[in-house]
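Hi support team,

I'm opening this ticket because the web form for multi-chain structure prediction keeps timing out on my end. I have pasted the exact lines I submitted so you can reproduce it. The total is 662 residues across two entries, so I didn't expect it to be a heavy job. Is there a limit I'm missing, or should I split the entries? Thanks in advance, R.K.
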Amino acid sequence: MSLRVVAVAVVSSTLLACSGGIRHDKRTLAGDSQRGRVPGRVVVDFRDGTSQTVLAERGAEWGVALRFNSLVGPEDGVALADNVEDVEALLRAIRQSPNVEVAEPLLTYEAQGFTPNDPEYPKQWNLRLIGMPDAWEMSRGKGVIVAVLDTGVAYETKGPFVRVPDLKGVRFAPGYDFVHDTDHPNDDNGHGTHVAGTIAQATNNGEGVAGIAYEATLMPVKVLDASGSGNSADIADGIRWAVDHGAKVLNLSLGGFGYSRVIENAVAYARKHGALVVAAAGNHGAGTVAYPAAYAGVVGVGAVGPDGTRAPYSAWGEQLDLLAPGGDKRRGDEGGILQATIARGEPGKSVYASYQGTSMATPHVAGVAALLFAAGAKTPDEVERALYLGASGPGGWNAQRGHGLLDAPGALRALGANTKVDWQPLAASAAILILLLLSLNPQVRPGGVLNVLLDPKLLLPLLVSSVGFFVLRVVWQRWMGSPPAAVDALSLPMPDWERIVFGRGRLAHPLFYSALIPLLVALPGMAWKGFRPVAAGIALGFAGFLAYAAWTRAPGLSWLPFHVLALPWLVANGLACAVLARALLARREKR
Amino acid sequence: MKVKGRVTFQDLGAGAWVLEAEDGKRYELLGVERQRLIAGTRVEIEGDLDAGSVSTSMAAPALRVTRWTPR
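Hello R.K., no limit was hit. The queue was backed up. Here is the completed structure from your submission:
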């Protein structure tokens, strides 16, 4: 096979593989032409430069008054006919005219999505940044209980406490105050009420501001005192209590710098019982994520300002999962997150306050998680996957931005299509295969790239190791419903099968992200020649997968003490896999 | 532990009082009466790091103050 054919194959296979993830279909749907029609009005696009005289003549001929739409009408020829009795008959007549390019019913267009009537909504840049107008068309969180583990919520008027007016009509599940051990988790600080408002402020009620999942049910769980601090025992108890009382999403806009096994166990309990825990990454502006956001199984949220870039106070690092609007008040209160709450130190006084912090970013994710549960997600794994797949940004994970910026409609769409397969590692494998074949002496080259690639003995192991046995999950979802964790894990590329052994976590195990498995698989190939294409396919798949992981700097590896070691590890092991694949591909006997 | 520094108010979440120590470290102040907390005050503090404390501000490790001396 000539080099030119090889080069064409490289480009075409790479393009083919890459196209899987980024295809956009633009189609005109049946019925689209009926939407937005204005009765009795027709738009006529005459040839450019049509004069007013011609316009008047044609109008008289068709029995309608025609006028140019605007001052550019004499140039672009766009005119309107009003008060038309029989639109279809007129259109038939007009379309016969040689002066006319197009004639059709006049259509109206509106800004897409749902715009609530809350008067302060225009100040909520944060809700538009995550695409809420579109998301509200798909889900409003109905029926999902979201626990707010915080300083309490101003949800009832009782003693010195008031319910803030913009929580009127919001559904509340009974909560608990773990600080004072009472059934009335009222807010004596203001933080918890603000956070609860972002999740489910009364929306489209003509008052104040909007919230994300405003048809969800809030569960106030007070674990922090009036100064905004608390201890690990109350937080752990609060987590378990909320889960046992039906919460599906737990918002923890709180954090500390000490590791607590008690809280970590409570988080694992929540996850095991089908609830998603979302927590703030921390406001110390450094590359370490605070606890509990840093525990496995918790979605750790960093903050962005109105321009969508990470706020200077927001923590980042290996346990960062997502960014969401947390505000940046360096340019004034309008850069913060506006919600209803109580005045600082005055539980009886309602205010609208602009706050900033990863505390404010966290409830955006919790709110969208509630939308996802309401839209049909069954497990926290499904919700988490949709949040990450739907996030906006360059794709992949990194320590600076996690999986990207929260995108509510993106997450809801990803939930419907969570069988999305990342094809890029396969493209990388194909490119490596071509380089390997070119590097082999023609006498030991096993054949052309397509001959090698399309050999099922190589192709199937290559697919399973680079993009995963994804068909399994598609079939399972089609016939059996939501797949169990093992099926989910098997649907992933082979290096991610560690999740079967170690459970889920956001760091990959370095032994799985290495040449170890391809080497073990290659051992039988030494004795049994027929097995070599299988071993070569796996080595090639790992080489492509590790190369892609190194390229995207994702994910972080556990056990390697320094972040900087991850990249050399991936590159070295990717190279080892490529060398192994080359040795397995080479024909032993010369032609 | 003893530490000297300047009291600051951090506009994070509902707000937090943070000591900016002379050695460059930062501590979130716990257990101090509200009226003592005035931004800009220079103080010498005795207290204990509270590793188990969790807060809304997440600005710095928590320092539970036992003795507060304005300087």
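A quick check on our side: The radius of gyration of chain A is 30 Å. Let us know if the file doesn't open in your viewer.
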